[in-house]
Each structure stands twice: as structure tokens, then as C-alpha cells.
Amino acid sequence: PGILYVVATPIGNLADMVPRAVTVLQKVSLIACEDTRHSARLLQQFSIDTPCVAYHDHSNEQRLEKILARLQEGDDVALISDAGTPLVSDPGFRLVRRAREDGVQVVPVPGACAFVAALSAAGLPSDRFIFEGFLPPKTGARQKHLQSLAAETRTLIFYEAPHRVLDCLQDMAAVWGAEREVVVARELSKTFETIYGAPLVDLIPWMEADSNQQRGEFVLLVKGAEAAESELDAKVTETMRVLLAELP
Ligand code: SAM
Questions:
Q1: In Å, how far are 8, 70, 193 from 43, measured between CA atoms?
Q2: What would the pLDDT profile of 134-191 be if each residue is shown by its tens digit?
Q3: Best of 79, 89, 196 to mutate for ligand 1, by most ligand atoms within 8 A of CB?
Q4: Which of 5, 48, 140, 244 has a C-alpha 20 to 30 A away from that of 212?
Q5: Would you say the C-alpha torsion 36, 19, 7, 189 has a positive or negative sign?
Q6: Distances (CA, A) of 72 to 33, 61, 242
Q7: Using a 6 Å cutoff on CB, does residue 83 contact ligand 1?
Q8: 13: Cβ below 6 Å to ligand 1?
Q9: CA–CA separation, 214 vs 98, rounded Å?
Q10: Which among 217, 138, 222 has a CA at the least distance from the CA of 181?
Q11: With the C-alpha atoms ordered 120, 123, 129, 131, is the resulting torsion angle positive or negative?
Q12: Residues facing 77 on adjacent strands
């Protein structure tokens, strides 16, 4: 069979296109795009005239089978999404899963990813973190989900749409308290890139005061909860138990 390349593309700044991505997209027989019209501009920019076909995880089975058949015939195929790394809050999971089941080699071509870029510049603990993708769009479900994350001590990372970002921050303050530190990473790699962090009590009025800060694309990064007292107590007790067992 051919190779399925999973190719990252820029998240705004076309200069972030990696040379290997250009080479691979030029040489494959077919590009599976999240949206062919959206990708046309990128492909044109880099003189890539490889045939494209639309693919997303809700595509019908036939579309999926067709791409898999091409791979079985020995054609190399590349998967791209509208921006960043495919499969990260983007289509591709079904295709990659099926390709691997079929014994097709799947090769990633690394590049931009919004949450990794945001984390690298946010100044929040980055040794451990959880990526939560998009929160539920409605307040009730969103607050419930936020509640389930209340004790999470790792840095939390979310994607959010511009028309929901303020509501989302308000729900975070309601559920986790207004002192929680949040970093907003907006329009990364683009002209109006802004990375701003503050406790929610200051962050929300800052964003409300300037409607420009509510436009564009957002990553929200949240400082994890302080380790709960009881959890610490449990650790101390456990340490004491181990130490006592060692005593003569
Ligand atoms: N696959 C992409 C990636 O690797 O990051 C993410 C695709 S997801 C459908 C789109 C979301 O990613 C946006 O709503 C926003 O939350 C985030 N995003 C994408 N580009 C961004 C940028 N330039 N600045 C900030 N956030 C961005």
C-alpha cells in the first residue's frame, strides 16, 4: 500500500508552513482536505497542484473507502485540515484509524498546533497539562463540565469560539472562583496576536473593556487547582506509614 501522510499546516501565518509539508503535498497522488475551497489558497501559495478531495469524519463511508482504496492501490495520500495539526479538534481520526487497521503506514509531518504554541508562551506550568478541546456551547452543560474539572491540578487548555469566549470565562469564574489565573492566547502567529494572563476577576473586565479582544481565534489556558489539603494529608500519612514500617 501507499503511505498516508498527516500534514500540519499553518494556524494563520503562512510563513509557518514547513518545507517538508510542501514537498510531501506536491508529491502525493491525492490530498484529503477538511474543506477543499479553504485549502485552495494555501495550496496555490506553495504551487501545489495535487488533486484534492473533501474529507471529514462525518463524510459518508464511501468517501472513506475510496481514500483507503487509493492507498491499497499504492498511491500516497496526504491529509490536511483547515489549520494546524489534523485530528487535534479537527477531522482525520476515522481515516487514520482505518488506515492503520488496513496495514497502511501513517507518517506525521509535524508543524503548527495552536494549543502547543499557546502553552509554549503562556508561562503556566507545562510539565503536565490536559487538552480539553472545545467546551460544550451551552452554559448549563459547560458549567457542569467545568465542575468536573474543578480539582484538576494540571494546566487546563481549551479552544473557544470568539462569540462564546466571554461567557466561557464568566462560567469559569462562577464554577472555579474569580481568583483562578487564566491566560488568553488570541490570533497566534497573526497580526493581532495577544497573549494576556490574569486572575479571572481582572481578565473579564479587561476583555469587556475592548471588543477587539473578543475577536479572532482563542486558546484559553487555565492554571490548575492547588493540590487539595486532604490530598496532601493523604500523602503525608502514606509517607509516615512507609517510614514507620522501616523503623527497627
Ligand atoms: N487543528 C488545529 C490545531 O492544530 O490547533 C485546531 C483546529 S480547531 C477546529 C480551531 C480552533 O483552534 C480555534 O477555534 C481556536 O480555538 C484554535 N486556534 C486555531 N488557530 C488559532 C490561532 N491562530 N490563535 C489562537 N487559537 C487558534
A1: 13, 21, 24
A2: 999 999 999 999 999 999 999 999 999 999 999 999 999 999 999 999 999 999 999 9
A3: 89
A4: 140
A5: negative
A6: 19, 16, 57
A7: yes
A8: no
A9: 39
A10: 222
A11: negative
A12: 4, 30
- C-alpha 210/C-alpha 191 separation (Å) is 17
84: left (phi over 0), alpha (psi -120 to 50) or beta: left
Q: Of all atoms in ligand 1, which is nearest to the CA of residue 112?
A: 4
Nearest atom, ligand 1, residue 85 CA: 4
Quote the pTM value: 0.92
Residue 196: all three cell numbers together: 494576556
User: Would you give the end-to-end CA distance of the chain in angstroms?
Assistant: 65
**218 in ligand 1 pocket by Cβ < 6 Å?**
yes
Amino acid at 228: A
SS3 annotation, 19-83: HHHHHHHHHCCEEEECCHHHHHHHHHHCCCCCCEEECCCCCCHHHHHHHHHHHHCCCCEEEECCC
Strands ordered across the beta sheet of 3-7 = 52-54, 30-33, 77-80, 3-7, 105-109
User: What separation in Å is there between the alpha carbon of 11 and the centre of ligand 1?
Assistant: 7
68-95 pLDDT, tens per residue? 999 999 999 999 999 999 999 999 999 9
What distance in angstroms lies between residue 89's CA and the mean position of ligand 1's atoms? Answer: 8
ipTM tops 0.90: yes
Pairing of strands 3-7, 77-80: parallel
